[in-house]
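Example record used in the benchmark description.
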Amino acid sequence: MMISGLLGLAALALPSLAAADAGSAAESLKPLDLTGHWAGYISLLVMVAAYIAAMLEEVTELRKSKPMLLAAALIWFVIVLAYREQGRDELAVAAFRSNLQTYIELLLFIMVSMTYLNAMEDMRLFDTLKVWLVTKHLSYRQLFWITGFLVFFLSCVVNGLTAGLLMGAVAVAVGKSNPRFVSLACINIVIATNAGGSFSPLGGISTLFVWQHGILGFTEFFKLFLPCLVNFLVPALAMHFALPREVPSIEMADVALPRGAKRLLFLFGVTIALAVVFDMELHLPAAAGMMAGLSLLQFFYYYLHQTEKAQPLSQSEFSLFFGGGDYRTAATQSTRFDIFDKVGRLEWDTLLFFYGAMMGIGGLGYIGYLDAVSHLLYGQLSPTLANIAIGLCSAFVDNGTLMFAILTMHPDITQGQWLLLTLTLGVGGSLLAIGSAPGIGLLGQAKGQYTFSNHMKWCPVILLGYFASIGVHFLVNAHSF
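Model output (C-alpha cells):
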C-alpha cells in the first residue's frame, strides 16, 4: 500500500516536473537583454557611426559598404563575447546564421534580376526603347507623361535605379535646350519610379523583404496599385501646368536589336514566373526560382555562342557591341556571351552595404534595442501614425534598411497596416532628391538641370500625394484592417 501510494504521488508530480523542465529549457533559449550591457552600448555606437559614414559617402569618397561591413563584424563579435561570458555562445551563433540565411536569399534574388538587366543592356533593349521615344516627335508635355507612366509600370519588375536612369536619359536627350523640362521630368520620374516599385514584390528591396518574410503574399501587394497611382498622379498633375508646350527638335537615330534580344526578354519573364511559382506553389524561397531562371540564361548564352560560330556577326553588329576590330575572334565572342561578365557588373557596393545593414540591424535586434523601439512606436503611438512617421523617415534613411528593422521588431499589426508600411516606405523616399536610389542617380545624370533645391520646391505637392495615397489606401483596402 505504501509503495502504491508513493507511485501515485510520483505520477501526480510528473506533469509539474515536466512543465518546470520545459520552462527552464525555454528560458535557456531566450535571448539575453543586452540593452544595458557594455556589448549593447558598443554595438549601438558602432552602428550609428557606420551609418553616418555611409551617408557621408559623397563627401568622404569612402564607399558606403566599407563602414557597414566593419560594423556588422564588430557587432556580432561583441555579441558572441557577451554570450560566451554566460556560456551560451551557441545561441548567438545560431542567431547570426538565421540573419545570414535571410541575406543570402535576398542576394541570390537580386543577383539574378540584375544579371538579366545587364544582359538586356548588352542586347540594347533599353537603348532601343530610348531611341523609339526620342524619335516620336512628341511635345514636352507628352514626353513628361509617357516617361512617367512607362517608368511607373517598368519599375514594378525592373530595378528602380535602372528604370529611373533609363527614362532620365530620355528626358536629358530631348531637353538639352530646356533645363526646366529636364528638371520637372526628372522629379516626375523619381516619384513614378518609387510609386511603381511599391505595389509589386519585385519593385524594390523593401517590398522584397516583406514578400521574402512571408508577411504578404505575392498578389496581395497589388492592393496598393491605386494608392501608388494616386501618389504619382497628384504631383504630376501639379507639375503639368509648369511644363513648356513646344515640341523639341530631335536628331533621328536608330538602334538594331542583335540576335536573341527578344528571346532574352521572354526568358526574363519566365524567370519571374518561376520565382512566383516556387514561392506560392512549392513553398520554396523565391530565390530558388530565380536561380533556376539563371540556369536558363546560361544555356541560352551557350546556344547563342555555339550557333554564332557557324554564323558570325556582321561588321555592323560587331561594331554595335565592341566598336571595331576583328569580329570573328573567339575571344570577343566568349566575352559577349560570358554570364560571369554580367554578374561581375552588379552593384556590389550596394549589395555589400545591405549585408552590413541587415547583419548590423539583426544584431541590434538580438541585443534587444529593436524591441524597445517597437514598444515605443507601436505601443505609445497607433500603428497608423507609426507607419506614416516611418515612411517620412525614408526621405532620409534607406527604405530597405528601415523595412528590415521593422521586420526584426515583429510588430503585431494587421495586413492593412503592413500594406500601409510598404506604401509609406516605398513612396516616402520621393520627398527629397536624396531619399531614393533613382533620385541620387538622376542628380548625377542630369547634373546642373535636376538639383536638390529644384526637387525641394515641389516637396509640398509631393507631400500632398503622399497623404493622398494613404487616404486612398484606407478607402479601397478598408477590409484589410
